[in-house]
Amino acid sequence: MNEGLGYILILTGLCFDIFGCIGLIRLPDVYNRLQATTKCVTLGTCSILLGALVIKGFSVTGIKALLCIIFLLLTAPVAAHALARGAHKSGVKLWEGSVCDQYAEDKK
Amino acid sequence: MKDHKILVWGLLFTGIILALLLITFYPIPSLLKWQSGLLARCFFILMLCFGFCLLRLMVGPTPADRAVAVDTLGILIVGFCALLSIATGRDWYIDIAIAWALQSFIGALALAKYLEGKGFDE
Taking the model in full, what pTM does it have? Predict the structure, then answer.
């Protein structure tokens, strides 16, 4: 029972991972790619770790997997925000189909 | 000239992806013992994701693209270590996952500082 639920969680996480990586290949812009990979890959990896927690139970491995989930949920958005800010400050242009750029309007 | 280069890289990566899909889903007799588990197929799907990240790392037009690809690769390796911990039954792969997540976070922050064009002590 626990193993089946864990494997379902792991397969869901792998689906999210592969969608995020397809987004990294297909989308036209740095910011679009960052958005796709950060959401999909973070959720996918957290789902894989949650599957490890469900399979192993509350043993040493399970508790460490829970710690790793909390750490990833805290740090991945911060790293993505820092990368987007650095890319905007280094002068990477937006895609020509973009509607608005509120960070550049705000800096003026 | 540039279109020619992109065509060659695209053909190479399509070949690699087709080979990975073949190994993952088609039963080859000499590999059947390794292929029989569900976890082995999970490893092959994750390797497909690694291939996509490495493709963006090679062809990315700006340095920011490459930084995003490296960050994504770091988060994927954390999931890979969790899968290894389940497959082999050893606890310390999760320790490697935690350490890799921390190192990847610090690396991403350093890359963002580098993209802004500032020194590391500001």
Answer: 0.84
